[in-house]
Model the fold of this input.
Amino acid sequence: MDETVDETVDETVDETVRFAMAEGSEMMTTSIEDGMHSNEELIGRADVRDLAAVFATVGHEDPEGHHAVVDNCPAEFTWDYEKGARPRLDKLYEKAKRAQWNAQTDLPWQTEVDQERVVLLNQEANPGQLGWSDSDVAGTALERWGDKEWLRLGIEYQNWMLSQFMHGEQGALLCTSKIVETVPWMDAKYYASTQVMDEARHVEVFSRYLDEKLSGHYPINAHLGLLLDDIIADRRWDMTYLGMQIMVEGLALAAFGLIHATTQEPLLKQLLRYVMADEARHVAFGVISLQDYYQELSAAELRERQEFAFEAAVRMKDRMAMQEVWHRLEVPVDDVVTVMSRSPQNDEFQILLFSKIVPNLKKLGLLDAADGWLRQKFTEMGAIAFEDLVDTEQELDAVADGSPVDRHVA
Done:
């Protein structure tokens, strides 16, 4: 079973790459139509690819160790306790109950991880240092880097990436507990309660991996933090679904799949395999819950959801610039902007991460509502080619196929 799923993940990655390479990426421009917000109003700048603006915001540690977000959402009781009133949610709930796993006992934590070796193997498998050529780095501080500096970048990138996964999982933990409170259907409350447990487990495993196998933590990326604040602060339950279940979890599922397919570190590979099984259910939960609900919304309400999805997409793309790593390595921002502007590979990799988001937005009807406004935005970002990939509800049985015990891989 696990080999079949690995093949499915690898095929999805290959198909995603082919779609991305075939689709041209045009520069994002400001588009203002009647009743529509401009890019400046939504994301604070006219051009999505304005790297100087992206790098202007860097995440920093909160000296208090806490971050408070005002959440004025109304908690909603329901006195309709009928189980199975929404059969697709009930089926997902039953699957989630069977698929629980123990982060302490179901993973081989005794596995030795040589972080430097992992980085070197990855660099050997992906020559060219992040896809950058000598001409890309010419005239910048990176031109003077040797093997030692590139190795340190790889190590810091690992620390940063796993830290962002950990922070994002805590965001999902808060958002899903909020869904339990606010969603009006009992079947959704039942399922969301299992996701709360999933997210606690994900925070646990990423935190432990960082502490025991890697070599340092990073604060939450500034753009990811802004997005999580927006999702948590919105009082409407469907916006929590859209922001977390569809957008954040969708990007995480794609990112986990890409790393799972390429990493040669066995503990991380197995950890991600377990987390991916959970994440596929989480994204499907959002698709199932919102599909019928969005058919009831007005054109103005759908426009709000489209704009929120676009803003979320840009913030998630912005976080991949990993500003915090360059800041820690004391590389001048202007040099990083120069290198990234010269190299299209960096942008293409970021677009790959939308392979799970775009087909789900299409299934929800958000791509083509409001005369296709969101379709236009994703076309300009170079991500619309993913629209005909299988949506997460359809691929659920292939990716989320039960507990580690059922898969005989624990």
